[in-house]
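I'll show a typical protein example:
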Amino acid sequence: MKYQYVMDGQELDYVNEVTDLGVQFTADLKPSKQCQLAYTTASRVLGMIGRTVSYKSREVMLSLYKSLVRPHLEFCISAWYPYYNHKSLVKLI
């Protein structure tokens, strides 16, 4: 059910999704849109690394992955964790 909110006599518009501080929020509050955006960004960065780095030793690639790709995948993960809080994830902690 949609509610109409009013601020200073002006009716606020209803939106299905919004981005705030780089985090994508949807009307149903599921993290799937945020996960898709993080995956897309991380894949692009990983592709850029693959195309531009010529010396691909394990140490170099691991360092680049940890500094350039992983932060995109871990961004705001603690905010979405309660959504998936069930027994299988609790065992991992």
Remarks:
- The beta strands are 6-7, 10-11, 17-20, 23-26.
